[in-house]
Design brief:
CATH superfamily of the largest domain: Alpha/Beta hydrolase fold, catalytic domain
Number of domains: 3
Largest sheet: 11 strands, mixed
CATH topology of the largest domain: Rossmann fold
Helix content: 10-25%
Structural class: alpha/beta
CATH class of the largest domain: Alpha Beta
Distance between the termini: 47 Å
Length: 547
C-alpha cells in the first residue's frame, strides 16, 4: 500500500481497494478529428481482469491535484483510469478555447479508446466542474457507448453561471482565467497552489476599470477567451449557442448522477440540467450536499457515490442504488433525506413582505399602492461597492455560511427581519424575490440575500441572488417604479424555533459580480462610476419553498 493510498483511503473513507498496484502509461497519443494530437495517461490496476475504463478529460493537467486524486483512488478500486488533457493544455496540441472543442475531442477520444486492445467495452465518465461539462458535451452523441456518468459540480451550459441575472461573474472568471494561464506557464502544481491560497494579482486586478484590462493585469497578457466573455454576453447569440448543450441533455441515454452543493456556484446549472432531463422523460439521480464548489469535504461522499453508481450500472446490480433518486442534505437539521423528485413533493410557496421600519412579515403592511410606502433608502457607490462575504464563492476561506455583521452594518445595505419563529421552518427548494423600487439611474443591480438570525442576533447567509436592471428590460412606470424579480439560489435549510428570517437588499456583491457602474456603458469598456440612489417600496417580497 502506498502512503498516498493510505491517506486517500482514510480521509475519503473509500470502499476497500481491490489492488494496491497501479501501472501508469504516460503520453498516449489520441488523434482528434481535425488531426490535432491529444495526450493522455492511463492508470491501470494490476491483477484486475476485465477492468472497465473511467474516462476523465481535463484542462487542469494530467498531473494536477484533481487528476492525481481521481486516478489513484479509482484505479485502486478496479478502473482503468484514462486522464486525457484537453486541447491546448498539458502537452495536447491545438489551442485551448474553453467549451468549444469538448464535444468533438471527447467523441474522438471515445473512438480511439474503443480500438485499444486493453479496453473491455465499458466506459464511465467522471470528474468535477469543467470535467463535468465535457461529459455533457459528448454524451448526447455517444449513446450507449457510455455505461454511466457522474458530472460532479458541473453543468451542460455555463451562460447562466457566468452571467447570473445579467451581471458578470467577475471574481470566479478572472480567478479561473488566471489559473489556466498559470498552468500553461508554470505547470499544474503551481496552478493548484494558486487556487488554494488565492492569486494576489488577480484579486487586485478585479478592482480595476475597464474590465477589458483586468486579464492583462492579472496574468501579464491579454487572454482571448476572457475578452470574448466580456463582449458576448447574450445567451441566444452564436457564441453561446455553440458552447451550450442544455437543449440536448434530454438525448443522453446513459444513466446520470448529478452532484452539487448548496453553496456551489454551479448549483443553478445543475438544477437546470436536472429539470431539463426530467422534462425529456429521463430519470437522473441528484445529490446536493452542504458544500462549496471547490470544497474538499465533498470528496468522500462524491467518490463513494460514484463507485456505487458505476458498479451498479457496470454489473447490472441496481440493488446497490438508493431507493429514491434525489438525496438532499438539510442544513441545520444536519441530516440527509431522500425524495422521489426535486423539488420534493408537498412543497408549498410562502411569501414574506418587507415592511417599513425593517420588518419582514407574511402580511402585506401599509397601502396597497407601493408608491405610498417606502421600506428604506440607501446609496450604492460603485467606487466603494458593497463587498461580498460568504455565499457560493470559489475561495472556501471567504465562501459558505459566514457572519453577516460586516455587511449588515454598512449604510448601503437594507436589512429587514422577521419575528422569532415559534416552530421550525424548513425551506427546501427554489427561493425568489420581487423587489419594487425606484433608482436614480436606469442602470442598477439588485442583490438579495436570505439570512438566518439566531437568538443572540448573529446573522448568517443562507442563499442569495442578483438581477441587473436596464431601462429596456425593466422600464419604469410613470411613477418611476420598477418591479424586479430576483432568482435566489435554491436551498434546503431548517430555521430553528427562536430564529428569525432576515433579508438583505443592496446594489452589489463585489468582486463576485462585476460592479454596476451606473452609466450603462458596455461591460468591457465602462470607466465611468455614477452613484445610484435606491428607494425600496412596499410590496417587495421574498417567496420561499416550505415543506
Amino acid at each position: 500500500m502506498t502512503v498516498q493510498g493510505r491517506i486517500l483511503e482514510r480521509i475519503l473513507k473509500l470502499p476497500p481497494a481491490v489492488t494496491r498496484r497501479v501501472e501508469v502509461t504516460k503520453d498516449l497519443q489520441i488523434p482528434a478529428r481535425d488531426g490535432v494530437e491529444l495526450l493522455a495517461d492511463l492508470h491501470a490496476p494490476r491483477g484486475v481482469q476485465d477492468a472497465p475504463t473511467m474516462l476523465v478529460r481535463t484542462p487542469y493537467g494530467r498531473d494536477g491535484a484533481l487528476s492525481r486524486l481521481i486516478s489513484r483512488a479509482m484505479a485502486e478500486r478496479g478502473y482503468k483510469v484514462l486522464i486525457a488533457a484537453a486541447r491546448g493544455t498539458n502537452g495536447s496540441g491545438g489551442t485551448f478555447d474553453p467549451l468549444v472543442d469538448e464535444r468533438a475531442d471527447g467523441l474522438a477520444t471515445l473512438d480511439w479508446l474503443e480500438k485499444q486492445p486493453w479496453h473491455n467495452g465499458k466506459v464511465v465518465l467522471f470528474g468535477a466542474s469543467y470535467l463535468g461539462y465535457v461529459q455533457f458535451a459528448m454524451a448526447p452523441d455517444a449513446g450507449d457507448r457510455i455505461t454511466a456518468m457522474m458530472p460532479m459540480v458541473g453543468s451542460s451550459d455555463f451562460h447562466r453561471i457566468w452571467y447570473p441575472g445579467g451581471t458578470f461573474a467577475l471574481g470566479g472568471l478572472l480567478a479561473w482565467t488566471t489559473r489556466i494561464i498559470t498552468a500553461e506557464r508554470h505547470g499544474s502544481l503551481r496552478a493548484d497552489l494558486g487556487e488554494m491560497i488565492g492569486d494576489k494579482r488577480a484579486r487586485k486586478a478585479m478592482g480595476q476599470q475597464p474590465l477589458r484590462e483586468t486579464d492583462r493585469l492579472a496574468t501579464g497578457r491579454e487572454v482571448g477567451f476572457y475578452q470574448d466573455w466580456l463582449i458576448n454576453t447574450e445567451p441566444d447569440g452564436a457564441y453561446w449557442t455553440k458552447r451550450g448543450h442544455r437543449d440536448r441533455v434530454g438525448e443522453i441515454t446513459a444513466p446520470v448522477l448529478l452532484f452539487s452543493g448548496w453553496q456551489d456556484i454551479i448549483l443553478p446549472g445543475v438544477l437546470d440540467d436536472y429539470a431539463a432531463m426530467r422534462a425529456a422523460g429521463r430519470d437522473p439521480y441528484l445529490t446536493v450536499g452542504p458544500w462549496l464548489h471547490a470544497d474538499f469535504k465533498q470528496a468522500a461522499v462524491a467518490f463513494t457515490e460514484a463507485h456505487a453508481w458505476f458498479q451498479a450500472h457496470l454489473n447490472g446490480d441496481r440493488g446497490k442504488l438508493r431507493e429514491l433518486p434525489v438525496r438532499l442534505y438539510v442544513e441545520e437539521a444536519r441530516e440527509w433525506r431522500d425524495y422521489p423528485s426535486y423539488p420534493p413533493p408537498g412543497v408549498v410557496n410562502q411569501t414574506c413582505y418587507l415592511r417599513p421600519g425593517g420588518g419582514l412579515s407574511p402580511e402585506l403592511a401599509g397601502s396597497p399602492d407601493p408608491a405610498q410606502d417606502t421600506i428604506g433608502r440607501y446609496r450604492y457607490d460603485p467606487a466603494n461597492p458593497t463587498p461580498d462575504f460568504g455565499g457560493p464563492l470559489l475561495d472556501p476561506r471567504t465562501g459558505g455560511r459566514k457572519d453577516q455583521a460586516s455587511r449588515e452594518n454598512r449604510p448601503d445595505v437594507l436589512v429587514c427581519t422577521g419575528d422569532a419563529l415559534v416552530q421550525p421552518l424548513e425551506v427546501i427548494g427554489p427561493v425568489s424575490a420581487d423587489i419594487k423600487l425606484r433608482t436614480s439611474t436606469g442602470h442598477a443591480d439588485v442583490f438579495v440575500r436570505l439570512c438566518d438570525v439566531d437568538e443572540r442576533g448573529r446573522s448568517v447567509n443562507v442563499c442569495d441572488g442578483i438581477q441587473r436592471i436596464t431601462p429596456e428590460e425593466f422600464p419604469a412606470g410613470d411613477d418611476g417604479i420598477r418591479a424586479v424579480p430576483v432568482t435566489l439560489c435554491a436551498t434546503a435549510y431548517r430555521f430553528k424555533p427562536g430564529h428569525r428570517l432576515r433579508l438583505q437588499v443592496c446594489g452589489s456583491s463585489f468582486p463576485r459580480f462585476a460592479r454596476n457602474t451606473g452609466t450603462g456603458e458596455p461591460l468591457a469598456t465602462a470607466t465611468g462610476l455614477v452613484p445610484i440612489d435606491y428607494e425600496i417600496l412596499s410590496g417587495s417580497a421574498i417567496t420561499i419553498s416550505v415543506l
